[in-house]
Design brief:
Layout (H helix, E strand, L loop, with lengths): L3 H76 L5 H10 L1 H28 L2 H15 L17 H35 L12 H16 L3 H14 L4 H11 L4 H15 L4 H14 L2 H14 L4 H13 L3 H14 L3 H18 L1
Helix pairs in contact: 1-2, 1-3, 1-4, 1-5, 5-6, 6-7, 7-8, 8-9, 9-10, 10-11, 11-12, 12-13, 13-14
């Protein structure tokens, strides 16, 4: 239930947030103005440089024209007959329009430079910046935060209700962004899950690899609840795959021992009844916790499902010896000697039994 303290806190945080956004907007506008000023200065420098280069080019052209005129004049005066000096001067004067044409071409570049500079300056007119600041100020002042805080929710004004809604949206925005990011991260893996339900048929290697990579990604996020949910989803489709159960157990072991024991029981008693490796791990886990009865139950279960396994029989005898039941452990080895087939196997069990008695003496 929302209390008046919550409402007052929302209004106060909204005021602080509005002020922060106003200052942030002013800072950005100042940065834009500074960038525009620097751009204008750079454009002015470029225009000045181009104008200087144009003047140098013009002076060079004028010097070339003058030199050519001098050479032409000398050539004509040297070759012309007496009395033809006036005609020669008329020919020289006719070359003057060439110089004027060159002069007319140079200002075109200057006009282009000036127009480019004006375009840069027009992009950041002071009037437009002033309008932007005024608009932001108007938006911030839509909710008058100087109004007195109400004594009850019924006394809230329309402006204060708008402020509360806006602040709630602002508070939820980071959560929304976080969820969108998480969805984008796992979208590929979710699309790769083609069979989320249980089936006796084997899964394709692509499916198994997809589940493995998906689990590794979520484990790295260190979100326990989310990881447990994904493991439970995975073990619906991958119930017969011992590796995923071991991965789940290794994840849960440092977090909750009792829950880890329950996972072992589910795996060994329901889905992996003929997998000795996980049974042996379960027995060692329970023995380490001091739960000897559960350890015996795990070993007896796999011994009944797959009788005659050397590792299981030796582990049962070792468990009884460590718990102080020397005779019971010896009886387990005696029974193995009696039911074994083949001389080599019998000799092996006899050696194991002799070693057991020597070690237990």
């Amino acid at each position: 239930m929302v209390t008046m303290e919550d409402i007052k806190e929302l209004l106060t945080r909204h005021k602080v947030e509005a002020e922060r956004r106003r200052l942030e907007t002013e800072r950005k506008i100042k940065e834009e103005e500074e960038r525009a000023r620097k751009a204008a200065e750079a454009a002015a420098k470029a225009a000045e440089e181009q104008r200087r280069q144009a003047e140098e080019e013009e002076a060079k052209i004028q010097a070339d024209i003058k030199r050519m005129q001098e050479e032409q004049k000398k050539a004509l005066l040297g070759d012309a007959a007496p009395g033809t000096e006036d005609d020669t001067m008329e020919g020289i004067e006719e070359s003057a329009p060439v110089e004027e044409a060159v002069k007319e071409d140079v200002p075109v570049e200057e006009e282009n430079v000036v127009s480019a500079k004006e375009e840069v300056v027009e992009e950041t007119k002071p009037e437009e910046q002033a309008e932007a600041v005024e608009q932001m100020t108007e938006d911030f002042n839509k909710v008058d935060m100087e109004e007195p805080l109400p004594d009850s929710s019924e006394a809230l004004t329309a402006k204060q209700e708008a402020a509360i809604r806006e602040q709630m949206l602002l508070d939820m925005a980071p959560i929304h962004e976080k969820i969108l990011t998480e969805i984008e991260e796992v979208a590929t893996f979710e699309d790769g899950i083609k069979r989320p339900n249980f089936h006796v048929k084997e899964l394709e290697r692509v499916q198994l690899k997809n589940w493995k990579n998906y689990l590794n990604l979520v484990i790295e996020k260190k979100d326990t609840v989310r990881t447990i949910i994904l493991f439970e989803r995975c073990l619906i489709a991958c119930a017969f795959y011992e590796g995923f159960w071991i991965k789940y157990i290794n994840f849960m072991n440092p977090i909750d021992k009792e829950e880890t024991s329950k996972i072992y029981r589910r795996a060994c008693m329901i889905h992996l009844v003929k997998k000795p490796y996980i049974h042996l791990n379960w027995a060692a886990f329970e023995e380490e916790r001091g739960k000897l009865e559960i350890a015996r139950e795990a070993l007896d279960h796999i011994d009944k499902g797959m009788p005659g396994l050397i590792a299981v029989i030796l582990r049962r005898a070792g468990l009884e010896r460590r718990s102080g039941n020397i005779e019971q452990g010896g009886d387990i080895l005696k029974l193995a000697i009696e039911i074994c087939r083949g001389r080599e196997t019998r000799d092996c069990w006899i050696m194991k039994y002799v070693g057991y008695l020597q070690y237990s003496a």
